[in-house]
Recover the amino acids of this structure.
């Protein structure tokens, strides 16, 4: 039982490059989330998926897209990376949206030069 | 949307003393309040949570209190130990789809 698995762990991109962050959970959770963490800013919600087939914007969605591929997998795509997207990205899942703990993956440290 | 304020941003206490971290929230409809601990380079992990129908909850050296009227909740750690050193985040949410809103975190330093 791995919980929430994110890949890659580290990534360096040049401005304008694209990439997809992968996330999978094996806890049969309906809800999945992408957060970014910046120093002194806490965790801010980028996008979420309440259930398979649905996605919605969070607090900071600009520059990102997401895909809920199936119940297990929720990916985050940067189409044209910018230095402002340098951050640590966490995927999370939850059994009950808004009423149960978030289970986080180990994070992806992304640097955009 | 919901706004969560967390204080202090840094807290230094002597080993064995107590530590208190405070959070306020803006939306009176919020009803779920978890606390997460994040060690350096690791993911946030839940340490305790409380729901709006409860005023206080304890788990060994950790306790959380909730005052719905004043819209604030606090984390209390007693008999602090070196392994308590970490960043602690409070969060709040309502019963809806858009996840948790987090405070900006408190860096707790336990001095030997």
């Amino acid at each position: 039982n791995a919980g929430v698995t994110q890949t890659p762990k580290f990534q360096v991109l040049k401005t304008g490059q694209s990439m997809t962050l992968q996330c999978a959970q094996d806890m049969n959770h309906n809800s999945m989330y992408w957060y970014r963490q910046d120093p002194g800013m806490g965790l801010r919600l980028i996008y979420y998926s309440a259930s398979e087939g649905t996605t919605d914007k969070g607090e900071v969605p600009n520059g990102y897209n997401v895909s809920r591929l199936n119940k297990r997998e929720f990916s985050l795509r940067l189409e044209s990376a910018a230095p402002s997207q340098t951050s640590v990205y966490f995927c999370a899942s939850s059994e009950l949206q808004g009423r149960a703990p978030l289970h986080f993956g180990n994070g992806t440290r992304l640097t955009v030069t | 949307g919901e706004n969560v304020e967390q204080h202090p941003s840094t807290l230094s206490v002597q080993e064995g003393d107590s530590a208190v971290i405070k959070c306020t929230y803006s939306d009176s409809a919020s009803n779920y309040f978890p606390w997460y601990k994040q060690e350096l380079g690791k993911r946030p992990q839940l340490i305790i949570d409380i729901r709006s129908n409860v005023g206080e909850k304890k788990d060994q050296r950790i306790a959380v209190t909730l005052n719905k009227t004043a819209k604030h909740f606090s984390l209390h750690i007693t008999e602090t130990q070196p392994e308590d050193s970490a960043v602690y985040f409070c969060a709040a949410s309502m019963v809806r789809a858009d996840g948790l809103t987090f405070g900006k975190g408190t860096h707790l330093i336990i001095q030997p």
Observations:
- The first strand of chain B starts at residue 4 and ends at 7.
